[in-house]
Design brief:
This protein has 12 helices and 14 strands. By secondary structure, the protein is α/β, with parallel strands linked by helices. The chain has 2 domains: about 230 residues, Aspartate Aminotransferase, domain 2 (3-Layer(aba) Sandwich), CATH 3.40.640.10; about 120 residues, Aspartate Aminotransferase, domain 1, CATH 3.90.1150. It has a 7-stranded mixed β-sheet, sandwiched between helices. Helix 1 packs antiparallel against helix 8, helix 3 packs across helix 4 and helix 9 packs parallel to helix 12. The longest helix is centred in the last third of the chain and has 19 residues. Bound molecules: pyridoxal-5'-phosphate. The site of pyridoxal-5'-phosphate has 14 residues, from helix 3 and helix 4.
Length: about 375
């Protein structure tokens, strides 16, 4: 994320000097009014009207009964594992190509993350490799909807049913994405979202657990607030956490929810423009959208192979020299020191080497997108 000016965003003016960040939040709706309301009313901590409002509106958006707001996406994921009682001796299958938090939360519980490879079409966790990784100790699967494209949930849920496993969606990057017409967040027992500053909507830091299960929702609320007994003040039958969201943050969330459909539509329009302009460029693979999927293109991402004539990292350096920010794909988690196993997951390793996230903010103008594409195409020459 970057705090660069967006003064020319929306004007259609081409300013060749404007630095184009990968992501920046858009906070130009009711954000300031609602945050001001928290300050003037002094409801700034984790009690206040915006918290249940944000939870209810986000749950409705996903098509589930309950939303439990948390301090960030990582704590939402950790809370999901905690309320399921996952711990030492258990295994949880996660994709290796994801943000580190998906694996770290498994370790926080004392359980062991087991890494599955990606499938080459959608870049998401490969159900066939998940099937190979299931053991007697497996308790859960955490599919990630990577960069905004939903994972193959039917195949994953079928494996879970067959082996009596719980599925938790890591939907941190995919608010509003859909699988066969159904929104993520409603495709498994539990789902976790992030509202970090570069996510599809933001509360600064923040997260949400979504579920249709009233017992799990109640457990999550309880553990989120130190696990204090509802009938005996300061009596804690279990070890809980402070994973609460503040009313200030929820106020931002309520304002962002007023524009979430607009943001997603803009993300998809940006993706269409990028795709139209980049299609047919040798050595560039466009991001997937399976026939059964609605991709929200959290990050518009491309793969760069040998046919492009310039490597992935030199292309990123060229973009930087033109004032355009970009990001490499995540490193496969099984290659990083805390998790290194020496095994190979070749599809994820290739995607990780070839992938770039291009500027994807909803504040991008069409001219910004054209400028990024021109810079890519001139790099190939
Ligand atoms: C952002 C992200 C998270 C963590 O969210 P935070 O709010 O930063 O804690 C987890 N999983 C994935 C896939 C993410 O992209």
């Amino acid at each position: 994320m970057s705090q660069t000016t967006t003064a020319d965003a929306g004007t259609g003016k081409t300013n060749l000097d404007r630095f184009i960040p990968v992501a920046e939040p858009v906070l130009t709706g009711n954000e300031l009014a609602y945050v001001t309301d928290c300050v003037t009313s002094s409801w700034v901590s984790s009690i206040g009207k915006y918290i249940p409002r944000f939870e209810e509106e986000f749950a409705r958006f996903c098509g589930v009964r309950y939303g439990v707001a948390t301090s960030n996406g990582t704590t939402a994921l950790h809370l999901a594992l905690a309320i399921l009682g996952i711990g030492p001796g258990d295994e949880v299958i996660v994709p290796t190509l994801t943000f580190i938090a998906t694996a770290n939360v498994v370790r926080y519980t004392g359980a062991t993350p087991v890494f599955a490879d990606s499938e080459p079409r959608t870049w998401n966790i490969d159900p066939a490799d998940v099937a190979r990784k299931i053991t007697r100790r497996t308790k859960a699967i955490i599919p990630v909807h990577l960069y905004g494209h939903p994972a193959e949930m039917d195949a994953i849920n079928a494996l879970a049913r067959e082996h009596n496993l719980v599925v938790i969606e890591d939907a941190a990057e995919a608010h509003g994405a859909a699988y066969q017409g159904r929104r993520v967040g409603a495709l498994a027992r539990l789902a976790a979202f992030s509202f970090y500053g570069n996510k599809i909507i933001t509360t600064g830091e923040g997260g949400m657990l979504t579920t249709d299960d009233d017992a799990l929702a109640e457990q999550a609320r309880w553990l989120r607030d130190h696990g204090m007994s509802p009938t005996r003040r300061y009596w804690h039958p279990v070890i809980g956490y402070n994973y609460r969201l503040t009313n200030l943050q929820a106020a931002l969330g309520v304002a962002q929810m007023e524009r979430i459909e607009e943001f997603i539509a803009r993300k998809r329009a940006i993706a269409t423009l990028y795709s139209d302009l980049l299609r047919g460029t040798p050595g560039i693979t466009l991001p997937p959208e399976a026939p059964w999927a609605k991709n929200v293109y959290w990050m518009f991402s491309i793969l760069v192979d040998d046919a492009f004539g310039l490597g992935r990292d030199p292309l990123m350096a060229h973009l930087k020299s033109r004032g355009i920010d970009s990001r490499p794909f995540f490193h496969p988690i099984h290659t990083m020191p805390p998790y290194a196993t020496g095994t190979s997951l070749p599809v994820a390793e290739r995607l990780s080497r070839q992938g770039i996230n291009l500027p994807s903010s909803v504040a991008l103008t069409d001219d910004d997108v054209r400028r990024v594409v021109r810079a890519i195409q001139e790099a190939a020459q």
